[in-house]
Amino acid sequence: KLIKKMGKEHTITLSSHILTEISAVCDSIIIINKGRIVVEDTLENLTQSFHMEQEVLSLEEIFLKLTKEEK
Predict the structure, then answer these.
(1) Element (H, E) at 61
(2) Rounded Cα gap, residues 55 and 29, in angstroms
(3) How far apart are CA 41 and CA 44, in angstroms?
(4) pLDDT value of position 52
(5) Which of 43, 63, 66, 69 has its CA 20 to 30 A from that of 23?
(6) Measured between alpha carbons, how far is 29 from 67 in angstroms, rounded to an integer?
(7) Helix, strand, coil % in the chain, rounded to nearest 5
């Protein structure tokens, strides 16, 4: 709640591997893999871009799809 409240008035940079928390509190997402930015977009745009038929992918599933070619 505190991060959401502060984010209304300030820019907050949050780094985490816990993607469920990131998707709960962040509007904009930057995914970095091996020191390179893979994608920078809003959570809404990312989930729309990776919408699979009736299934909406989680941020973790999107991360795995974006970084699997980067190995």
Answers:
(1) helix 59-67
(2) 20
(3) 8
(4) 67
(5) 69
(6) 15
(7) 45, 20, 35
